[in-house]
Every structure is written in C-alpha cells, then in structure tokens.
Amino acid sequence: xxxxxxxxxxxxxxxxxxxxxxxxxxxxxxxxxxxxxxxxxxxxxxxxxxxxxxxxxxxxxxxxxxxxxxxxxxxxxxxxxxxxxxxxxxxxxxxxx
Length: 97
Hints:
- There is one protein chain.
- Helix content is 68%, strand content 0%.
- It contains two helices and no strands.
- The protein is an all-alpha fold.
- Helix 1 packs antiparallel against helix 2.
- The model has no long low-confidence stretch (mean pLDDT 83).
C-alpha cells in the first residue's frame, strides 16, 4: 500500500509547486511593474532599488520552482492520475412516479 500513498503525496507536492509557481510569477509581474514605475518616477531612489531587489528575489524563487517541477516531472503511467467516478447518472434519468 505504500506505493499508492507515495504516489498521492507526490501528486500533491507537484500540485502545490504549480500553485507556488503561479504565486511567484504574480510576484515577478508585480515587482517588475513596481520597479519600472518607481524607476520612471524617481530613478536611483531607494524605493526603486528595493523593488529591483524584490524582483530579483521573486525571479530566483520562480526559477527554483520551475526547476523543481522539471526535476519532479510526473512519469507517464499510461493511465489517468485521478480515478473519480464520472458525473453522469448511473441509471436511467427519468422521474419516478
């Protein structure tokens, strides 16, 4: 039973890395905009350099998450990863009297 549990934990970790990567991508977008805005308003200011520093940090985190996802690529097993029941009704769909 251990391999099934390990596979479920592995898939959860991959899903979490996808969510974290999306968060880091949003951070990169936000800090790139902030750095550009403050660089245009006040070039060389402390706020601009802080924005650039945070942009570099979020870019590094995004690259690390991307590399981790590439390293943890889900091996193809030839079968679906999720075995939930279909949403279709199991029996006939007419009303009972």
